[in-house]
């Protein structure tokens, strides 16, 4: 009985580590990417859209190959919008989040969670079968000893 508890504890520990790792990979990567991007933004001069009002002249769209190589804003999310600052009349690009990108992330997360559900359901079923075998073996031995 004591060995069963150790197996359950190990399984629970593996489950916690696996869930933590997957959560970090799925959710933490974007947080780290945004944190690194903000660190590089501090080193540069402050863009005009942070200090003054602006008007969006081109809506949020995916970066093309040239923009991806040239604009640092493209490296953050892969999408940019063109803006015009009100006071300085500068044309600048600003990183943005598109609905398409958010939907892709959502379905990626849902798929990951569905996969984990299937994996852990299979683990529960196999564990239950193993415990049932141990219980029936124990009952068989008790009946034989009578």
UniProtKB/TrEMBL annotation:
Subcellular location(s) of the protein: Cytoplasm, Cytoskeleton, Microtubule organizing center, Centrosome; Cytoplasm, Cytoskeleton, Spindle; Membrane; Mitochondrion
Entry GO terms, CC: centrosome; membrane; midbody; mitochondrion; spindle
Keywords: Cell cycle, Cell division, Cytoplasm, Cytoskeleton, Membrane, Mitochondrion, Mitosis, Signal, Transmembrane, Transmembrane helix
Main location class: cytoplasm
TM region(s), chain numbering: 12-32, 106-125
Membrane-protein topology: Single-pass type I membrane protein
Coiled-coil regions listed: none
Biological process terms in GO annotation: mitotic cytokinesis
Description of how the protein assembles with itself and partners: Interacts with AURKA, AURKB, BIRC5 and INCENP. May be a component of the CPC at least composed of BIRC5/survivin, CDCA8/borealin, INCENP and AURKB/Aurora-B.
Function: Required for normal cytokinesis during mitosis. Plays a role in the regulation of cell proliferation. May be a component of the chromosomal passenger complex (CPC), a complex that acts as a key regulator of mitosis. The CPC complex has essential functions at the centromere in ensuring correct chromosome alignment and segregation and is required for chromatin-induced microtubule stabilization and spindle assembly. Increases AURKB activity. Inhibits apoptosis induced by TGFB1. Overexpression induces swelling of mitochondria and reduces mitochondrial membrane potential.
Similarity-based family: Belongs to the JTB family.
Protein name (record): Protein JTB
